[in-house]
Specification:
sodium:proton antiporter activity, 135 residues, mainly alpha, 0% strand, transmembrane
């Protein structure tokens, strides 16, 4: 392999491993569910993308073969990570709204202000179909 390919692979593997480590550490250490979403959806996704790119370069430089597997994995990862994070955030906000949120090992979740400062958080009102304020 050429020295440029070797250096590129080493940089991408170290960058990918660093992002994956930081993302995993953030998943464990951040205090609330909403903050914990950033670890796996942002940093770990970028880390895995860098590792897969290093794999593409390695197999091209070593065997002279272009593989599509890594590109498909990256595409699947970059499509599904934001969608799953959005769904987890919506469930979290729904549980906060209905009062079914339980405190985990990280402590209680932050409460929104009375003005409803979260983009998709709206306090339940009496007489609405999803309201638990009637009970």
């Amino acid at each position: 392999m050429s020295i440029i390919a070797d250096i590129t692979i080493v940089v991408l593997v170290l960058l990918g491993a660093g992002f994956a480590l930081i993302g995993s550490w953030g998943l464990v250490r951040l205090p609330s569910t909403m903050e914990r979403l950033h670890g796996p959806t942002k940093a770990t996704t970028l880390g895995l993308g860098a590792l897969l790119l290093a794999s593409i370069i390695y197999f091209q430089a070593r065997l002279g073969v272009w593989t599509v597997h890594e590109l498909l994995i990256s595409l699947f990862l970059f499509i599904t990570a934001p969608i799953s994070a959005n769904m987890i955030a919506k469930v979290h906000l729904h549980r906060l709204r209905t009062g079914r949120e339980t405190d985990g090992i990280a402590g209680p979740p932050p409460r929104p202000s009375e003005e409803g400062d979260w983009a998709s958080f709206e306090a339940p009102r009496q007489g609405t179909p999803a309201s638990t304020a009637d009970n």
